[in-house]
Amino acid sequence: MNAFETELGVLTEIAKAVDEMGWLLPTDVQSEAIPVILDGADVLMIILRFGSIPEVILDGADVLMAVETGSGKTGAFCLPILQIVHETLRDIQEGNKGPRARKQASASNELKPLQLNFHDRSHGLAIDTDGLACQSQDQRIWNGARSTKGVKGKGRYYFEITQTDPNGIARVGWSVPIAIIDLGTDNQGFVYGGTGKKSFAKQFDGYDETFGVNDTIGSFIDLDRMKIRFFKNASFKYHLFI
């Protein structure tokens, strides 16, 4: 047994292989990265050739490590990937009843927060760290985002947004996963806009009154009856799309 197995949780077979390669002790980046990757974390690793901070970090990407060339990053990535692939294949052979499958099933059943999706947004949209507030960084174009959860099948679903920017114009609504972020400009999304219009496939028609700062817009979808409704400040607006 070596440190890769005893300290980082690497399988005995992999630990034996790296021992034969002369890897007696993990590097700093391996010590930090391998356990969290094995635990299911998503990893983005940046190679620093110069002293500057990469733009991807400044742009809000999730970053686990920023490391220099030669620091052992290949092992930090590849060793846990090998182990995850091995355990996944083993779970499949066992009828998805292995320890990793049970762990993933348990994680999938946990209640995950509903937020704006940092990874499914326009480049020009800034999202607050709690995922509950956003602002366009370019007033010349529309910027938007989807949520971290979607709905399908049957049932009724509802969410609300409140406009806090006195100078902004917002659109709110529903779309399918393949819709473009510029909501309402293709035939995959249904929108109620701050200018008082509904939109679908670039067709902007008069709908109801406008909305703006401090207004709360509720968006309701009935998948059983295939209807979409909107509410402004708790006041029901007639069926938008049927």
UniProtKB/TrEMBL annotation:
Coiled coil: none annotated. PROSITE patterns: B302_SPRY (PS50188). Keywords: Hydrolase, Nuclease. The keyword Ion transport does not apply. InterPro entries: B30.2/SPRY, B30.2/SPRY_sf, ConA-like_dom_sf, DEAD/DEAH_box_helicase_dom, P-loop_NTPase, SPRY_dom. It comes from the Eukaryota. Pfam families: DEAD, SPRY. GO terms for biological process: alternative mRNA splicing, via spliceosome. Residues 94-242 form the B30.2/SPRY domain. One of its GO terms (molecular function) is nuclease activity. One of its GO terms (cellular component) is nucleus. Signal peptide: none annotated. PANTHER family: B30.2_SPRY DOMAIN-CONTAINING PROTEIN-RELATED (PTHR12381:SF56), HETEROGENEOUS NUCLEAR RIBONUCLEOPROTEIN U FAMILY MEMBER (PTHR12381). This is B30.2/SPRY domain-containing protein. It comes from Rotaria socialis.
